[in-house]
Structure formats: C-alpha cells, structure tokens
C-alpha cells in the first residue's frame, strides 16, 4: 500500500504528465477548485499539491491566473553559433550530394538499426489515423467508383478549396484554381525549379539546407549557391543581397522561412518582407517551401512569404505530409505567374494525384477535428523537442550548442571541436543508432561538427538511453 | 403473347448476347447437348436454333468442334495506309506540342461536351470497383496506421512481388528489387528519359505517337525524331536503322510495342528481337512503354521487348492505370542498368507512392479475380471496338480507312482527302462531341486526315448516334 500522503500521490501523477509531455511548458494547471472537484479532495490537499510541485520547480504561480507548468531546468547550453557572414560564396556545381546520400543510405542498411533519429518525421501515433480511416472507408462506400475513375489533372476541387481556405490564416489570398495538387512538397519544388530554371543555372539556397533540396538541384543539373543562414532568424538577407550583387546569374532563391530544415529557424516578418521585395526588384523568382509551418508552437499562424507577393513572383510549395498524414503523398503549389507552365509540367511529369486521398484529406481539413489534431500535434512535438534537448544538455560533452526551435520535428546540434558529426554517425551506426551527420546538409565542408536529431518519436526511456549513448560516443572523440 | 417458334425466341436471346458483346467473335456457342439441358428443349429445337443463327451469318460450324460466333459483316473499309518509308526524317525540336495540346484542351472547355471520344481510357464500369473497395477498406482495418506511416521509397514489396510474378508471363525474369513503383507510366517514362538523356538530345519515337510522350520530350528539352510506323506491325525497324546511320546522335528509342497509341499496332516477335539487338549493338538505350499489353484480345501474353534484353539496355515502363484501376496512379519501371540512377531520380522527384493503393493492387493481383477481370475486360473492349468500327464503316464517308486493332482502347481512323481531322474536331466540338485530331500525335504535319476515337465507353445508342453525327460532319467537308 502506498504510504505517501494523498497530495504527494496526486502530485506524482501530474509530474508524470509533465514528464510525458501531456502537460507542457506554459500549460495552465487545473485551478485549485478544479483539482478539488476532479480528485474529490479538500482545498488543503489541492493547495499542497500545487505548492509541492512549485517547490520542486515544476510549476510557477502567476498572480490572479493560477499555476502554470514551467521548465524545471534551464538548458546549460549555449545557442548554436551564427554563421560567418564573411564566408566566401561558391556556387557548388554537381558536387555529389547524391553520392553522399547514397553512402549514408547504404551505411544505414549495413547495420541493424535499433533507434532511428536520422529523419525529419513524426511517429505514426502523432497523426489522426482513426478519423482518417473512417473518412476514407466512408468515401469508398459513398463514391463506389472512386478507385476506378481517373482524377482531375490539377487536383481535386474539394481539397483545393480546403487548402485555399486554410491559406487565408497565413495571409495568402488564393483562389482554389491558383492551386495545383502535387505528389508531396518535393514534387512541388521540382516543378517550381523546372518552370523557372534550366540546367546549369545557379540557385541561391540556405546553408545548411535539407539534403532533399540539394538532391533536387543536382538531379536537375542546377548549381547551389549557399547563403549563410542564422539558426535563429533564417536566411541572411544581407548575404543574399551581396550574393546577388556579385553573382548576376542567380536564377531563383529557395527558402524555408519557417522551421527551416535542419536549423529550425523562423524568419522575422521584416526579413520575409524584405526578401520578397528584393527578389521582386531583382526579377529573381522566389520559391517558398512551407512544409513545417503548421508545426510551430503558437496556434497563431505565421505569415507566408507569399503574403507580401504582389506580382506573382513567389511560388508557394507546401505539403500535408508532416502535418496531417505521412502515408498520403499530398503536396501543393501556388505558382503565381508560372501557374500555367507548372500545370503543364505536372501533367507531363506524373498526371493527377489519387482522388481517394485528396477527398479524405479535404473532408478532415474541413472539420474541427483538424484544428484539434494540430493543437495536439504542436503540443506533443514541443514536449518531445524539449525532452530531447534536455537529454542532449545532460549527456553530451560540455561545449555542445543548441537552439531549441519554436516548432517542428528536429534539433540541430553543434558539437564541440574536434568532435566530428560524420565520425559520430559511423560510431553510432555500429551501436545500432542512425543519426544525420551535418555534412549531408551542404555541398560545402561547413557542417562537419553538426548532427541533426529527429524529435518526432515519443521520448521513451529507449530514446533517452540512445541520447546518453550518443553523448558517450561523442566524448570518446575528445582528446584525453 | 409471343407467337414466334421456340427456337426463334431462343435464337434472339443469343443474338442479343452477340450484339451486346457478351458473346464475341471466335467464342464457342454452348454445344447442342448443353443447349438442350440449359433451355430444357428437344434436340430438334437446339439444332434449329444453331442452324438459324448460322443461316443469318452469326455463327459458323467447325467440323468436330461445334458452332462459333463469327463476325456477321465484313468491314467494307480498307486498312489504314502504311507509312511512306522514304519520308525524310527531321528531328523536331521543341515545336510546341504543349501549345497545341493547350489549344486542344482549352477548346474542349469552351463547349459543353455531351460525348467525349477523345481519350484513351476505359469507362469506370469496366473495372472491378467492388472488389477493390472491399480490399481497401479491409486493409485500413487491418493496418490501422497505413495512412499515417511513410512508405518505402522504391515501392511496396508486396506489389513488386506481384508485378515480378506477372512479368514472367511476358517472358521477363525480374527480381522484385529490379522494380520501382512510380506515379503512373508517365512518371516512369520521365525517369527513364531523365536517366539516359540530357536536354538537347534527340530521341527516336514512333510516328504517330501519343501526345503525352511528345509533351514529356518537350518538357525535358528533348527533340523527337519521328520514325515511320506501320498501323499493323508498329515501328519500322528499317527506317530506324536508316535513321541511326544518318543521325549519329540518337540518344534513346521509345517504343510502345503492343497496341501502340494511337495506331493499335502490335510488333511481331521477330521485329521486337531485331529492335532489341539493334539498340544493344548501337549502344542506344531502348525504352519500352507497356501500358496496353494486358488489353490484347488473346489471353496468351505477348513477349515484352525486355524478354530479349541480355545487357540491361531495355528500360521497361508499365502501368496498372488502364488495366486495373484508372483511379490509382500506379506505374512501374524496371530500369535495367540504370536502376540505381532511376531510383535516385524517383526519390528526388516525388518520393514514394502511397502504400494504401499499392497494397490494394497487390492483394487483388494475387487473387484469381484479377485474371477473371482481365478476361472480362478484354472481351468487353473487343466488342466495343468492333461495334465502333462497324458504326464508322456504316456512317463515315466512303474512302474512310481503318484497322481494327487486336486489343486496346482506341481506333485510329484515316479520313478520305480532303477531309481534315482538325476541322472535324472543331465542327464536332460545336455539336458537343470531343475527338482527338491526328495532328496531336506528331510534331510534323503528317496526320491531318486522321482522328483517334476512344472505344473505352459502352457502345450505347448515344455513342452510335455520335458516330453517325461525326460521319455527317465529315461528309460536309467533301466537295459536292
């Protein structure tokens, strides 16, 4: 029998909830009255419960508002360093990101992986499978010939209406007919680049950027000009301006303004506005990858680059892959003045998407369940990111640097020199752990001391052990 | 009350079945003994039934085999003319098939269309929607996280196993890992061409060929070298050989060996073998588009070009779009020695297909229901093609030429000069009829007097009226 006093036993339940992330930093605790009713306890017990957790550093009292969950520990980590703006720019032609990714994939297949932290993806449990299954099965009963009828080439109208409606919150005014549905955001980026460039052209991208984009550039015969990018505020507009002045041949700019991959940076509105105006003035098409925006901590949507677009110079690419359903390949593109060309390219490249998944997504997006799902997803991811960051702070060698992003699925970790992310990747593999080495995120040799960790998995004891193991492996690289 | 003798009443029922296509040319009638048992009639009545239909020209007796359905009328049409092998070859660069197709699409949208005969697609009723819906719903119940789990990049293994198994019948020995699943055959063709060519290269194609392929070439900056192609035996290997000798820069050959679109031609085995060997000797990659093969009249599968491939020089592209489910975007590619490169390009272009549809297709393909479906589909399409051809023979101006293909979804109709397919297209539009003018099937001005008609729709009275209307409109073009 539990001999702890009642308030302690209840406090432990709330502590578990905080540790599991179902109560996250900033969340309001139930009020003292609610606690009394919920647990059928006296005022004294409810107050003792709250004060105990406050004393332990888990809650903070705010005058006239009640108790809120506070972060129990401050991360003893310095933020990732800002890029050196004086870095010379170098358009890296076809320098073999494909070869590097192939090596990475092949290595990953050589060892049995127990814990995969290399991706930028959420665990299936984060997504509303029960509701989606229900809608999908119902649709098959209602539209019996859905699987045997060819779809609409530019995308299902119901989905385009749902997307256009949602775009309003990001400050975009789009007609459903401005939108084309694609096989994921990666196809949208392909189409955007094919519409505005030709092989040999130079494209400005963030540095670091996700290897998926570098692969697209390489596969289309394009050169990447890597622009210094802040782990906090994203692409350096100053550096881009300089690059445009010194390289008069930049044919497009590709940017992930929100929760950039791998940095997690978010561009301030003023930067976004300046970027849109700069590209417009210079006549350079601006391609926006908006994959992660819905995963920010705040329920208040961030403004898309396209919000400031007055001339159709911004091509907006996005996806439901990370926010709604990783098993449905639904992306979309609003291609501005390249709409007709992108439509033709999409038709010639892969025809239409499947109606079935489009209708399923549309129906879910039009329900209140979608907002509820997003709130829950943001909440869970925030807890997972913070738990992962705390584990890194606890287990990684002193001098490790980290910014906990305000959303998204990943952490970008800077290791103290001379620890090498590539060597850590190789050592981790032999321990059954897969991580993404920093060298995958650039064509240049700039991110040797970095790794990217996936925070999309529930922060289980196994994940915590994995982080501890990684920390030990990293320490082995330090001189003794 | 019906006063006709019993044998006549029964004969009418069989006649209806023949007219509806459920008994098609070449089908065996039930034997006399079976007729006696089926209809509970005397030997005399059963014999009278058969002899009556024989006298009317619907059945033919074969010694010791019984009665078979024969075609009641011979088409009073000469076959489409063979191409002139002396035609000068001309690599047509970016000559604007996209613009022509855009015009075609835009025109089609200007008028309310009552009858659309412009496509190469089957009516939804031709496909097994009930069985697919059942499998799909069951899969969602069994694999509850299917919609929220990311798929495998090279394609679902169950589907690849099913495809590899089926490929055996076409004479191909493929491991499941030799196969990559794509978003339809059109994506497979894109990937194949991207793997073996670069912009500016010249590609040999059939002439005429489907505008989808010409669009792919134009969108990739490739030039089409159109090789004369027989309406009966497909690509002229002599002409291709000549072209290779006079243009030393042919970087790939794209061929639809079976039921070529729009011709419906089938290459004889000897031609296929010679083509594979020629391309191998010349070091020219050979891309095979196998979209329609399962739609041939015969249940005996035709041998794929890849059957003769000993060096991995043949890239086999195919699709389930026309044979299993037009609503599921499932294509595949066996890219021979370009496998790794195509896999990387597919990953960079659109990532993986949705697992849901892949698993649904795999389960259906592994059941006996798939073969039953294909037999029924072949049977129905044969009837529809023949009915359409008869209507053309009956209603189109004298001098119209036509080969009824041994399978597939379309008829390629040659109109007597000076009737213009483009003008007929415009006139038909105003009558609410959409057809595909021959000029869409070439970058050259060679097929002005042709049109393509879709036979994928049930041959209803409405379709018959439409053909009659088209015939009248065509006649208006003749000098009086």
Describe the structure.
The structure is a homodimer of 480-residue chains. By secondary structure, the first copy, chain A, is of the alpha/beta class. Chain A has helices at residues 6-20, 32-39, 43-55, 97-110, 129-142, 157-167, 184-196, 211-219, 237-246, 269-282, 339-350, 355-365, 368-395, 421-430, 461-475, and strands at residues 59-62, 66-69, 115-116, 179-183, 202-207, 223-230, 234-235, 250-255, 286-289, 314-319, 330-334, 401-402, 410-414, 433-434, 436-437, 450-454. Chain A is built from 15 helices and 16 strands. Chain A is globular.
Question: Quick one: how many beta strands of chain A?
Answer: 16
- Helix count from the secondary structure assignment of chain A: 15
What is the terminal separation of chain A in angstroms?
50 Å
CATH fold topology of the largest domain in chain A: Aspartate Aminotransferase, domain 2
């Amino acid at each position: 029998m539990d001999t702890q006093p009642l308030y302690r036993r209840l406090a432990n339940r709330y502590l578990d909830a905080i540790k599991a992330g179902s109560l996250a930093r900033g969340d309001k605790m139930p009020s003292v009255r609610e606690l009394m009713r919920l647990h059928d306890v006296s005022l004294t017990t409810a107050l003792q419960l709250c004060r105990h957790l406050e004393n332990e550093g888990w809650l903070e009292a705010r005058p006239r508002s009640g108790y809120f969950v506070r972060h129990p520990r401050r991360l003893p980590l310095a933020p990732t360093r800002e890029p050196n703006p004086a870095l010379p720019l170098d358009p890296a032609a076809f320098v073999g990101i494909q070869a590097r990714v192939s090596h990475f994939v092949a290595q990953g297949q050589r060892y049995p992986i127990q814990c995969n932290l290399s991706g930028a993806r959420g665990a299936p449990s984060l997504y509303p499978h029960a509701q989606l299954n229900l809608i999908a099965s119902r649709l098959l009963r209602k539209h019996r010939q859905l699987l045997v009828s060819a779809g609409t080439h530019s995308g299902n109208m119901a989905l385009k209406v749902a997307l256009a409606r949602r775009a309003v919150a990001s400050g975009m005014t789009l007609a459903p007919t401005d939108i084309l549905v694609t096989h994921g955001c990666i196809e949208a980026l392909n189409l955007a680049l094919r519409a505005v460039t030709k092989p040999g052209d130079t494209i400005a991208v963030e540095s670091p950027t996700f290897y998926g984009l570098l692969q697209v550039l390489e596969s289309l015969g394009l050169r990447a000009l890597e622009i210094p990018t802040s782990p906090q505020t994203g692409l350096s507009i100053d550096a881009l301006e300089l690059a445009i002045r010194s390289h008069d041949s930049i044919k497009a700019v590709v940017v992930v303004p929100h929760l950039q991959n791998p940095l997690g940076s978010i561009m301030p509105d003023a930067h976004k506005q300046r970027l849109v105006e700069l590209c417009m003035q210079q006549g350079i098409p601006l391609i926006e990858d908006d994959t992660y925006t819905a995963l920010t901590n705040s329920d208040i949507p961030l403004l898309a680059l396209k919000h400031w677009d007055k001339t159709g110079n911004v091509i907006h690419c996005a996806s439901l892959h990370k926010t709604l359903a990783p098993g449905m390949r639904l992306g979309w593109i609003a291609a501005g003045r390249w709409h007709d060309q992108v439509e033709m390219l999409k038709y010639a490249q892969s025809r239409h998407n499947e109606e079935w998944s489009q209708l399923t997504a549309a129906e879910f997006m039009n329900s209140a369940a979608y907002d509820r799902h997003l709130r829950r997803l943001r909440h869970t991811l925030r807890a997972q990111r913070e738990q992962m960051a705390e584990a890194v702070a606890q287990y990684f060698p002193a001098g490790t640097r980290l910014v906990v992003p305000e959303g998204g699925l990943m952490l970008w970790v800077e290791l103290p020199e001379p620890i090498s992310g590539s060597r850590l990747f190789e050592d981790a593999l032999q321990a059954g752990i897969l991580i993404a080495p920093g060298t995958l995120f650039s064509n240049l040799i700039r991110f040797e001391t970095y790794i990217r960790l996936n925070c999309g998995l529930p922060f289980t004891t196994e994940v915590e052990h994995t982080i501890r193991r990684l920390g030990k492996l990293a320490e082995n690289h330090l001189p003794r």
